[in-house]
Amino acid sequence: MADQISPENPRPGETAGESASGPGNIPDVQESGAFKAANALFVAAALIFVWSIVAIITNLAYSPQVMMLNLLESGMLTVLGFLSRKKPFSSLIIGLCLFIALWAVTAAMDSANIYSGIIVKIFVIIYLARALPSARSFERNN
Question: What's the number of domains the chain is made of?
Answer without folding.
Answer: 1
